What does this fold into?
Amino acid sequence: MRYMYLVLMLSLSFLMQGLYAQDLCTGSLGENIFDAGDFGTGMLNRPLDDPGIAPGYIYTRGLPDDGFYTITNDMSLWSTIFPSWLTITDNSPDPRGYMMVVNASFEPGIFFEQEIDGLCENTFYEFSADLINLIAAGNANHIAPNVSFLLDDVVQYSSGNIPQNETWIAYGFTFTTAPGQTSIKLSLQNNAPGGIGNDLALDNISFRACGPSGFISTEREQFFCEDDNTPATIIADIDLSNRIILWQRSDDRGATWSTVTSDQVTEIVHDDFTPGSYYYRYVSASSAINLENSKCRTVSEIIRITVLPREVMVLDTICTGGRYAFDGDSIGQAGIYIGEFVSRRGCDSIVTLDLAVLPNDLSGTVSVESPLCPGDRNGRITITEITGAVGAVQQSLSGIPFSSNSLGDLDTGTYELLLVDAIGCQSTQLISVTPASAIRLEAGPTLDLGLGETITDYLAEIGGDITTIDWMPPGGLSCTDCPDPLITAIGDIDYIITITDANGCSLSDTLEVRSDIDDIPVFIPNAFSPNGDGINDLHRIYVTSPAIESISSYQIYDRWGNLVYQASNYDPADPSIGWDGTSKSQLCPIAVYSVVAQLRLLTGDVVTVSGDVTLVR
It folds into this structure.
């Protein structure tokens, strides 16, 4: 049991004298007299017909140049747009709602004009519009739009320069109609020159009656239990000598309103405890005549009273195998169940549940578009048919939800498709996405070779209808377009093997070749006999490894460190190069000499070897 006052505070500290160019209305507003001020809504991005609302401007369905305008619902869908312009939608929740886009002419002038009639004299009105500077932030040296609001061709208010902040801003003013005035011409005038900038969008042009604030209340939504039976009193704090009010009620969520009072009263009582929702408001005007004219009265905020029922009937359905939580139980069988509950609003209620259980007949038929090449992410699954579903079906592929009938950008792999309908029935199936091309490549493990060693039995594992093979870099290979080149170790090299098939698909893999340069066989004889007998007459360095590309330096020194022989940059296989036991055409004495040689490897590295040799005769 409760008693409640819903206070509707109406402030009369509101100036009603005939002043122009005041701020936007801070009280209650009436219905928008100019119902075309939001430019409507539609499927076309830009309507075909010229609305004829901009004197001196030309309507276009293309990119508006200076002196042109268009009506559109989404600038991001335009095929061309100035690079400095924003790409915005209209200033409303409607995704198809229209706005007006203006590229101002070179000379200031009127770009919007409409006649409004059926007004009331001596009535306070607001004239406003939402404007946005179309130049994106960060674009310097652009002219800012500047708009004046005119009544009957007389400027009453100016926006000033509209900031370049990518934000819709409401501009406007309030005024009072003159005695005997029942019509008016509304105009918007461009004050800035055209050229670079002065581009704007316009939406939500509004012309409404303005009155004192109404329903200044912190609780605009109230709940009662069906068995409360305590009337709710709704109070308006208003001086009826200054305003005329009419209370209204709606039982269909505000679609239609009916009058609930005939006398001028500041409070009404809601005493209907039939379960349902009830909406209350009042309309207000400065006179009884104006109150009858929807263009001359204001509308208060709305209070909703909801009466919660004592007994509730719930019809619900689950899928076979599913469970339904009810009154502390988990139910899996069809039947009628009764439970007692306390709602979150504190109302006692008896809930009768009529539960049905349906078989799980949910299934989906799927088609698969394979990626053309291995590694591509352009596979797609499409649900071509869903059968046995109850209500809407939720779809997910390996945990990724999707709402359309297909999901793309898929890599090769196996996916789980899950379908769940409105009653919890589920269908799962595994879907394999395989590439259309059967191309495959495996370069194999790292090859550890001695420097200069050649492997003759290497073969990459290659499959598919291969058209080309390419090895890079080519050094150390007997061929670069075959699957099994002879590979000679010339250092640490990573070979990239790339194959291409008849579909143009390519795969690449890397073969790592590593070479050991720490143990290269070199033989330096420790004695020779240059006596002309044709046997062991030259002292040479004998190289048995292909790892040695050349001998950079070969030098012989006597025991005092004097150089007695040298050779440089020669092929180690050349038998004619060696020391013949002479120095400066003189026979060298029998003695022990030092040998120092520098060997250039296939890798470009240079190693130094040394030893002693005894000259005998």
